Amino acid sequence: MPSNAKFVYDPCLEGILAMDLRHLRYFVSVAEHANVSRAALRVHISQPALSRRIRELEAELGVRLFDRVGRQVRLTAEGDDLLRQAREVLARADSLDERARALRGGAVGTLRVGANPLLIQSGLPRVLTRFRRARPGVDVRLTEDGGVRLVELVERGDLHVAVTAVAAGTRLASRLLFPIRVLAVAGRRPVWKSRRTLEVRELADEPLLMLRPTFTSRRLFDAACRIAHVEPRLAVESAEPRSLIELAAAGHGVAIVPSTLRALPRSLTAMAVVQEGRALGTWIGVVWDSRRALPAYAAAFIEELTAAWPPARAAEAPGLPPVPRPPVQEASTEAR
């Protein structure tokens, strides 16, 4: 579909009868960046040209979409309402484009995949290797980030799929791959000898080495602390789990990390964090937006991931409380 093609709203999307898709894309970019300069870089036009396009859109609609505050822009109430509808229209337009690519068989194209650092360091590379051998014409673009951010990127259409923690309540479709736990990793101490689990409240007085809040394991731990009325002593915050492990090995505190870590140094002990005896953890899955038609190669990648980590063979460690499976929205990976 040409970028300047006209798109007509269906009756459920009120407010606009016809719209230049380029103007909608410009509008969404400015809304997401809250800055015209940064948005202009994203959509590859000059700042003056982008400002002019936004004024044209406001004139066409007869409403002001942004309030200008210095170099920043803020959505008006009308702009906030339009943003939701604009994203729906663009998602449908993108779906038509993706469907056309899927109909060409998926032999060539660009697959946009997201994953957190630990998965990139562990099981994901072997899956990517097999996929690239099977589909050499597909260019794989890999994005590394925390689970919360990855879900946002899938919802925005910036990623086809993400391998991340599956959260209840999301509208994304998903398939479960394997469970993960929140671990407390520290130097060996007599008081922790032979311990396999550690209650959240037992960490109240420990200096904690934690991942940033964009990581799901951090959010799970923070939520457990609030429930247990524990104020965590944050000593270090990092986006790199291995850095936290090195600091723990040097005696600087207790690292709170997910169980997807590879083998730990022998000087360290790892204990599953629990809350009143219940497992603190979630499941890793592959997630995608079922509103959008997946390219054939993206659907094939999901099948490759499922084959690599079948949930039926995801063994739980004996003697530890099981990690509950989250309710998920499963959907076909075929293009709609």
Mean pLDDT over the full residue set: 83
Distance between the termini: 17 Å
Q: Major sheet: size, sense and barrel closure?
A: 11 strands, mixed
Q: Portion of residues in helices? A: 25-40%
> What class, by secondary structure content?
alpha/beta
Number of helices: 10
- Total count of strands: 15
Structural Rg: 23 Å
Architecture blueprint of SSEs:
Blueprint: E1 6-8, E2 18-20, H1 21-33, H2 36-43, H3 47-61, E3 66-69, E4 72-75, H4 77-103, E5 109-115, H5 117-121, H6 124-134, E6 138-144, H7 147-156, E7 161-165, E8 173-187, E9 197-199, E10 207-211, H8 216-227, E11 233-238, H9 241-249, E12 254-258, E13 268-275, E14 278-279, E15 281-288, H10 296-308
Parallel strand pairs: 5-6, 5-7, 9-13, 10-11, 10-12
Antiparallel strand pairs: 1-2, 3-4, 7-15, 8-12, 8-13, 8-15, 13-14
Helix pairs in contact: 1-2, 1-3, 1-4, 2-3, 6-10
Summarize the structure in words.
- The chain is an alpha/beta fold and 336 residues long.
- It contains ten helices and 15 strands.
- The protein has helices at 21-33, 36-43, 47-61, 77-103, 117-121, 124-134, 147-156, 216-227, 241-249, 296-308; strands at residues 6-8, 18-20, 66-69, 72-75, 109-115, 138-144, 161-165, 173-187, 197-199, 207-211, 233-238, 254-258, 268-275, 278-279, 281-288.
- The strands form three sheets. Strands 5, 6, 7, 8, 9, 10, 11, 12, 13, 14 and 15 form an eleven-stranded mixed sheet that branches. It has a two-stranded antiparallel ribbon with strand order 1-2. Strands 3-4 form a two-stranded antiparallel sheet.
- Helix 2 crosses helix 3.
- It is globular and about 70 Å long.
- The two termini are 17 Å apart.
